[in-house]
């Protein structure tokens, strides 16, 4: 399976848990992401509590699929531990690794954006009782996929230039 080309956002899940060993693989992959100066400013909260899910849906309008998912991972971190302004790039690499690892283990997953929307970030920080130095980056929802559609081939030669803009 070519996970890079087959990964897609999956928002429908069938019943079934994410196995503990798969969760550990996914988190190991997350923590293997590249990071500016190898600062690795990230941390994670694994969320499975259905009451928490209901609160998440109230503060994130595009996360309703969590209600049918067995698990989600909140990507958070300490911006002061990142090199310069690279916190978001480090956490984006982590988030992508989570999606790819989930795909490799045959789960469906979707990245729900939080960072960049201050109000949303603050609401998540409050919900998860985060200390002041911890910033919320993304929420990745993971479950057994109920979506058999194929990812489209999006290669577009027009997007690529060689050596200079022309
Ligand atoms: C920064 C970012 C934020 C996103 N936020 C959401 C979101 O809140 N809810 C959602 O359902 N999908 C979200 N997505 C997934 C995109 O909608 C999806 O990647 C895009 O439509 C392309 O589809 P694909 O992932 O299937 O290739 C987000 C993706 C990124 C990179």
Structural account:
It is a single chain. The model has no long low-confidence stretch (mean pLDDT 97). Helix 3 (50-59) runs antiparallel to helix 5 (118-127). The protein is an alpha+beta fold and 166 residues long. The protein contains 5 helices and 5 strands; from the N terminus they run αβαβαβαβαβ. Helix content is 33%, strand content 20%. It has one domain (3-159): 3-Layer(aba) Sandwich (NADH Oxidase), CATH 3.40.109.10. The chain is globular and about 55 Å long. Strands 1, 2, 3, 4 and 5 form a 5-stranded antiparallel sheet that branches. It has helices at 3-6, 20-31, 50-59, 87-104, 118-127, and strands at residues 13-14, 42-47, 71-78, 108-113, 134-145. The longest helix has 18 residues, at 87-104. Bound molecules: flavin mononucleotide (FMN). Residues 8-9, 11, 62, 110-113 line the site of flavin mononucleotide (FMN).
- Heterogens: flavin mononucleotide
Percentage of β-strand residues: 15-25%
The name of the CATH architecture is: 3-Layer(aba) Sandwich
Describe the global form.
globular
Indicate the CATH topology.
NADH Oxidase
Q: Provide the CATH superfamily.
A: NADH Oxidase
Classification by helices and strands: alpha+beta
**What's the N-to-C terminus distance?**
36 Å
Q: So what's the CATH class?
A: Alpha Beta
Q: In percent, how helical is the residue content?
A: 25-40%
- Counting DSSP H or I runs of 4 or more residues, the number of helices is 5
Q: What is the tally of beta strands?
A: 5
The rounded Rg comes to 17 Å
């Amino acid at each position: 399976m070519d996970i890079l080309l087959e990964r897609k956002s999956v928002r429908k899940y069938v019943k079934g848990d994410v196995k503990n060993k798969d969760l550990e693989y996914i988190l190991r992959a997350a923590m293997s992401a590249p990071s500016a100066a190898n600062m690795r400013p990230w941390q994670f909260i694994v969320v499975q509590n259905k009451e928490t899910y209901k609160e998440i849906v109230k503060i994130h309008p595009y996360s309703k699929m969590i209600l049918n998912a067995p698990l989600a991972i909140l990507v958070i971190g300490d911006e002061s531990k990142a090199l310069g302004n690279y916190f978001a790039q480090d956490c984006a690499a982590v988030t992508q690794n989570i999606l790819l690892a989930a795909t490799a283990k045959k789960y469906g997953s979707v990245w729900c954006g939080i960072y960049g929307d201050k109000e949303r970030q603050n609401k998540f920080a409050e919900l998860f009782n985060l200390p002041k130095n911890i910033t919320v980056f993304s929420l990745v929802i993971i479950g057994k996929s109920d979506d058999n559609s194929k990812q489209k081939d999006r290669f577009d030669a027009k997007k690529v230039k060689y050596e200079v803009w022309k």
